[in-house]
Amino acid sequence: MDIDTRQGCNGTDRVVELHFTTQETENHMIRKLLFSIVLLALLALMVAPSLAQDEFVIGLVLVGPENDRGWSQAHYEGAQYAIAQIPGARFVHFPSLNPADAPETTLQDVVSEMVAEGAQVIFTASDAFEEDTDAVAAVFPDVTFINISGDGALTGESPSNVGNLMGQMEWGKLMVGCAAALSTQTGNIGYLGPLINGETRRLASSAYLGARHCWENYRGMNVEDLTFTITWIGFWFNIPGVTLDPTVETNTFYDSGADVVISGIDTTEVIVVAGQRAAQGDAIFAAPYDYIGACAEAPEVCLGVPYFQWGPDYTRIAQSVIDGTWQASWEWIGPDWSDINNPDTSTVGFVKGDGLTEEAGASLDEFLADITTYATNPFVPNSIALWRGPLAKQDGSVLAEDGQLVDPLDIWYLDQLISGIIGASS
Fold this sequence. Notes:
globular; Rossmann fold; four-stranded parallel sheet; six-stranded parallel sheet; alpha/beta; 3 domains
């Protein structure tokens, strides 16, 4: 760089001119460019916190894989629905938190990572997480937790930042039980259950009540000629060496004379086995569970699937957290009776399968119309169709006298299977 100093025209001022060489001009431009980059980076750092505040993060903890074509996939797609509805939302998830797939990982490990990612609401999608959700929520009091299918918010046992959500799948099970009774030619129906608790007892009992009603009222048969047997595998899905093998147990049902098997577990073994056996010439049918697309595993033998649609409720709950209006509550939500398969409004739905005959499908439509009328009758608020006396438990004790409605909480906390079901209650 050359410095040229000349005297000004008045003889006192001086003019200083800087003359850059070509190389120095390039260096100067590079320095200006670097300065601009640094300045922009600093501005980005200053703006980043405000942008991060506009992002809403949903956490989702799954008990199984997100592609199980069952319970976990229904939740995964529910979270996807929610982030599509909420501007600036994203979700983080952890799949297969269970003793077989992640034996060394705890719920607190998973939640800690999610909170570090910015999660403000975390859905723990299994009753297997109920107790741990309460414990972890106490560690993170500023995060909202929703445990699916638990009841700590009802009993008061959960911290104030924990709520519960569950769909009234009892309605879906009534429908699938009816579909089974309309389709069986042997009068022998199998039900593959997971573990035994209040939820699984009431769902299996609902399927039986639907089957019994349609067997008598649409088929004109005697209830004594209907066999409804349940086998429990020990968990929501197969854990080799821990549970019974659902594939083996499904085959056992068919080998023992059942021609319809209803699934109560989270995964698709029942419909897969049915498809395999039908391909060999067996006249059998099946009904999967949880996921709207589960019939695709073997559509020709599928009678239908009762399924959950979590997206609308995930969206509603997340939005209430964003708005600052969320309060801990226990929610047990029924279908949208104006359209049980509306993806934007109905928590519980039922899709008929290709395995239903036209006649059986028409009868099932009539049954759906009947229970819809019942569910929307203002004189039976909160009541679930067919849960009306006379009803007895397996040990013969009275659940409801003739004409008496069973209290919804007595259904929720059902301590035995309904009389008429073959299988263990505990």
